[in-house]
TrEMBL record:
Active site: 276
Protein name in the entry: Succinate-semialdehyde dehydrogenase, mitochondrial
Annotated pathway: Amino-acid degradation; 4-aminobutanoate degradation
GO-annotated cellular components: mitochondrion
PANTHER family listed in its UniProt record: SUCCINATE-SEMIALDEHYDE DEHYDROGENASE, MITOCHONDRIAL
One GO biological process term: gamma-aminobutyric acid catabolic process
GO MF annotations in UniProt: succinate-semialdehyde dehydrogenase (NAD+) activity
Length: 505
């Protein structure tokens, strides 16, 4: 018996009003284990709130390691049959899943805005981005091939096949509560793996809804499972996933600190581990750059989701000859940003996800101000209160400032001046992180030199938005392990099994 089975659940009045969900379908606010919508075994729940209004959207199960174990067993049971489906069968089911997501995209987008706070247009973009992964991997499912090898001995035939690794546990963040799951789950399912997902305590409803779309598409019971937990139980659930012998892989997107802890915990069971951790992206504007394009790129990479992305521009480095003009254009663009509730179509910047994030951003700006940075725009709590922070432009940032050393994860653009290409590369690489980086230049030789010199997993060249299902997303150094998206994203979920047939004439 897996927890308490609750098939039909009525959503909270606010969610109900905004999604009109009960008028056309069930809204689930439970965990999802073996195809059942379930409460926590303990019966406990926690509140999910809208950061724009502080209103409680729903109460979801506060699941612990016992529920996590049930979800692992469900995924393990489902794996026994899912692993034997053909790539074509999986492909067809996943294509149906894609169709359901597209059909329900508006409702899904609204739910992201309600629990995450990002503007509705961005939420819709996130749903399309999510569906791209499902569509892409529905196509890749049919192309997971082995190889016949060139044998060194006439009496031996050698080959390998790719097999699914098994049950994968996924720990996903609040900043892209649907896309980060879609990108993991669709690659895993295409490879023949099954999964159990723990969403962030801030944004579990989007994950639950994504699972409901998979159910509607006919993804078999137990192939996808969802465990919702409060902050209090998150560590226990994570530890259960890492130490379980049945879980053969962990895929995590989040902070470097938690990623390192999971890395340690996984050692006892020698698990496959994919980590997409924090960044500290440089954005370099060289003298030859098209400055208007560079401002568009800086705004997109900095202020997407209010600056709360791992690939967000963190340190903007501007070459001395174009410094004044670029700063003036950037200042104009930032001054025009409209802060508010993401449901308002005029809003460009929503609230930060929670008070902890707000305090972190405010403390980093205060630290920079104390150490000599100047504020050209914003720099304080927004008059809307709560977790709203003013879009901010800081100039003259220095190496000893926290915002130089760590990603700020908020709507704060930070700039510094440089003289030479060597200096820019030295500053850009002067971090333990290595996720995304960006630069703008119209000098082709420089483009070639700098793109190779940057110690990052991803480089945007004259482009501020680089993510796509077709592209390998991931970092080097302390930004993580493995890649998501592209055909290489499948490697995290496949084992290579080698056959050697001997005794041949
Ligand atoms: C992230 O912030 O972790 C992901 C951003 C993206 O996929 O573009």
């Amino acid at each position: 018996m897996i927890g308490v089975v609750l098939k039909r659940v009525v959503c909270s009045p606010q969610v109900n009003r905004v999604l009109s969900c009960t008028s056309h379908r069930d809204f689930h606010d439970k965990g999802y284990i073996m195809g059942e919508w379930v409460g926590a075994k303990s019966g406990k729940t926690f509140d999910v709130t809208n950061p724009a209004t502080d209103q409680v959207l729903a109460k979801v199960p506060d699941m612990d390691e016992h529920d996590a174990e049930a979800s692992i067993q469900a995924a393990q049971t489902a794996f026994l049959s899912w692993r034997h489906t053909t790539g074509k069968e999986r492909s067809k089911l996943m294509r149906k899943w894609y169709d359901v997501i597209i059909k329900r995209k508006d409702e899904m987008a609204k739910l992201i805005t309600l629990e995450n706070g990002k503007p509705l247009a961005e939420s819709l973009g996130e749903i399309i981005y999510s569906s791209d992964y499902v569509e892409f991997y529905s196509e890749e499912a049919r192309r997971i091939h082995g190889e016949i090898l060139s044998s060194p001995a006439k009496s031996k035939e050698m080959m390998f096949v790719r097999e699914p690794i098994g049950v994968v546990a996924m720990l996903v963040p609040w900043n892209f509560p649907t896309a980060m799951i879609a990108r993991k789950v669709s690659a895993a399912l295409a490879a023949g793996c099954t999964c159990t997902i723990k969403p962030s305590e801030d944004t579990p409803l989007s994950t639950i809804l994504l699972a409901a779309t998979a159910e509607e598409a006919g993804i078999p019971l137990g192939v996808i499972n969802v465990i919702t937990s409060s902050r209090q139980h998150a560590a226990g659930v994570g530890a259960k996933f890492c130490t379980s012998h049945e879980v053969r892989g962990i895929s995590f997107t989040g902070s470097t600190g938690v990623g390192n802890l999971l890395y340690k915990q996984c050692a006892s069971t020698t698990k496959r581990l994919a980590l997409e951790l924090g960044g500290n992206a440089p954005f370099i504007v060289f003298d030859s750059a098209d400055l208007d394009n560079a401002v568009v790129g800086a705004m997109a990479s900095k202020f997407r989701n209010g600056g709360q992305t791992c690939v967000a521009t963190n340190r903007i480095l501007i070459q001395d000859k174009v410094y004044d003009v670029f700063i003036s254009k950037l200042k104009d663009a930032i001054s025009k940003l409209v802060v508010g509730d993401g449901l308002d179509p005029k809003t460009n910047i929503g609230p930060l996800i929670n008070m902890a994030q707000f305090h972190k951003v405010a403390a980093m700006v205060d630290d920079a101000k104390e150490k000599g940075a100047k504020v050209l725009v914003g720099g304080k709590h927004h008059s809307l209160g709560r977790t709203y922070y003013e879009p901010t432009l800081l100039v003259d940032i220095k190496q000893d400032m926290l915002c130089y050393q760590q990603e700020i994860f908020g709507p704060v653009a930070m700039t510094m001046k440089f003289k030479t290409e060597e200096e820019a590369i030295r500053i850009a690489n002067n971090t333990r992180s290595g996720l995304a980086s960006y630069f703008y230049s119209n000098d082709f030789s420089q483009i070639r030199r700098v793109s190779h010199a940057l110690e990052y997993g991803m480089v945007g060249i004259n482009e501020g938005i680089i993510s796509a299902a077709e592209a390998p997303f991931g970092g080097v150094k302390e930004s993580g392990l493995g890649r998501e998206g592209s055909k290489h994203g499948l490697d995290e979920y496949c084992n290579i099994k080698y056959f050697c047939i001997g005794g041949l004439n």
